[in-house]
Amino acid sequence: MYSPELNLIHRKLIMEKGFLDKVEDNAAVQTWSETTQQEKGDSLAEGYVSELWDFTCISVT
Question: How many angstroms separate the CA atoms of 26 and 32, rounded?
Answer without folding.
Answer: 10
